[in-house]
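Researcher: Quick sanity check before group meeting.
Model: Go ahead. Protein one:
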Amino acid sequence: MLLTCDPNDGEGGIKLLDELTTNAKQIQQQILESILQQNGETEYLGKFLGDHVINKDTFKNKVPVVNYEDIKPYIERLANGEPSNIICSQTITELLTSSGTSGGQPKMMPTTSEDLDRKTFMYNILVPVMNKYVDGLDQGKGMYLLFIKPEISTPSGLVARPVLTSYYKSSNFRNRAFSRYSVYTSPDETILCSDNKQSMYCQLLCGLIQRDEVLRVGAVFASAFLRAIKFLEDFWQELCSNIRTGNVSTWITDRGCRTAVMSILRQPNEELADYIEKECGKKSWDGIVKRLWPRTKYIDVIVTGSMAQYIPTLDFYSGGLPLLSTMYASSESYFGINVNPLNKSSDVSYTLLPNMAYFEFIPVEKNHDEEEASQGLQCNGLSDKICSLGEEEQQVMETVDLADVKVGHYYEIVVTTFTG
């Protein structure tokens, strides 16, 4: 069930979001039916469903909840050259490596070109939500510090790389339709630079040059944004020198970066260099973000789950700017968005979008087991975990559908996607 959302159509986007959440039960049923119809004859599902009628009941009764280790042999077979249809009817285009932010070793997840369209949908539907709460986002730019990470080629030729690297290098991102609400200070060439030091330097330089146009700043994770602040502490004098002279440092050797930055730098700007030197040269960096980018309305970073530890440091540097966690996503699937983005960090919750995947929930007794309880609370952070049950538990444990979860109860999430 592929949907599209025009980020420039605020009214249409909010209406679509209302329809998705209001009809969640029906849409989830359609998603599961679609997944089963497409993949019912794959080797993986076939061994459980056999000759049974392929529907929700047989899926619930015959297909067990598993963990990554159960799926891993199939993924390794894909990586070694076996056809996609051992697990997915569509062509697997690449393997996504998990970030490991939820603990444990990185995993590999199969994905298709269609999955990129689902990710794009979620980025687009965030725009009307943000516009509902923050005025004037079309009157400036976002300084988002985005990076790619190394990728590897598997024996089959499939590329294995992190989910965000996959998205930024895709045509969905590089050839994205123009939206006046999603203009970045960082040229694509600086985001797609494989040298993270050059990428960081050039993105910060572009952000400083365009400081008067910046309305929001951010990165994916809070930790990444704070790394950028530390980088700025180390390199602000050199950045000021570049702005003062109108030339980029000679160690910036990536041709795409140099060309893109020079198209923004254009000419010397002593007044801007003096101002940045004055602010960065002060003894305290309290509120440095607000001082350097005075029009900034908020900082867009994930500060839930394991990222919550960085909130006090972000508050110090931000000068009281709101910290907005807008999205809940992982390598396995994109899940949902924060429909009340201005809530305090401690009150953040995410609304799952029922067209992303088929979601089930395992009830967790809050005080039954401390470890299980803490895992159940990770619904407020990015998670790379597929929930699992033991062999005996699989026979007695029933999962709860998205439309049937109860307020105040704790759950672990189980996700079934079009690729596994």
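Researcher: Fine. The other one?
Model: Protein two, sequence then structure:
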Amino acid sequence: MLQVMRFAVEEINNSTSILPDVTLGYEIFDHCSDTQNFPSVFEFLFKNSSVDILRYFKEDSHKIVSVLGPIGSSQTSTIAPFFMMDLIPMVNYASSSTSLSDKEAFPSFLRTVPNNKGQVQLIIRILEKFEWNWIAFIGGNTDYGEDALQLFSDGIRNTSICLAYQEELTRNSNYSVTFKNINMLRINVIIVYTVRLYATELIASAIMNNIQNKVWIASDTWSLSKELSTRKGLSTIGTIIGISERVMSLPGFPEFVQKSRGDSKHPQCKNEKLQEFGATCNQACYNCSYIDPNKIITEDPSYNFAIYSAVYVVAKALHNILHCGTKGCNKTERVFPYKLLKEIKRSDFELLNLRIKFDENGDSPSRYNIVSWNLDYSDPFQYIGSYDAEPAESISINETLIHWYTNGTVSILLLYIHVNPAIMI
């Protein structure tokens, strides 16, 4: 993710049309936890590492004009208020909780990924298409999972789908008990809508507990997980159908990653520690030299385009504010965060043949790929369909491409409840 962001920044800085004589710079910090990140946030935001209350938006005490990230809805919710306070645009690439669409609470929050609503709607459409109506929903105790569970519960009210079992996972969850309950209820379709950590532990436990012949619906956080797809015994647990962000290849990115390895020992890298471990000058990545560049290039691409487009959103808005043209930009124009926010909200441009824009809540259009895991191939994630919410909802699925790790059918439990009308209370 970091390398994609660096790639986008360098591409823009080398462009002669976007910001021809202006150089983008950045600072980056590791959002290590929801509770221990505040010193980094203050250092990131304020020149003296303390919170200044501005009398007017035209006062300028910030080190930055915009922020990208962080990943995860819960992580975003904890730090977003500090950026909202002075209308600093927060262009997010991986937080999908619908609570972040509330413009009263998050007035300067926008995102280049859809909110959970479209993904949950797509999952419901898949269940209806295959007539799967006896479902388990496994989420997590995060904003991401809790929000999706509520949307799912609301979305199936007028359908034949029954939420037979639900659970929110924690680090202390007993997965054996989870699967015991699922088997006892004879559930064969399991939605796993949680962060990758919990999904990885859950699937590993399913293999260990000899869970077989289920259909698993993977949310976008783990639907393209290469780590999980190589697990021994994965084919025994059943069929995995995943929802992923619209994956786009980034022309020039592989070459950028390969070149970065050569640049890491450049004489300008004064820090001997960084040179020793092969890190680039603008990041303290002490274990980077041990990573094969091809591993970076072939890593899970789920959020690559969202990160790439988030950088371009900010750059295009700066282009407009600075009145950039063939002769350069007006660098005497002061860039205040609130001005940048106004321009970002107006974003409407094509990037790698996809339209980039935001609605009134700062949300991006819902567009997803549908994949089926076929473990017989070197690339196990087979594209089987797509979903678009605009201009009208459309879904396409090629069922013949699904590799069923069951007998090709999923048993459906129909539950009838008879009420004796003669009984009155």
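Researcher: One line on it for the slide.
Model: The first strand starts at residue 67 and ends at 68.
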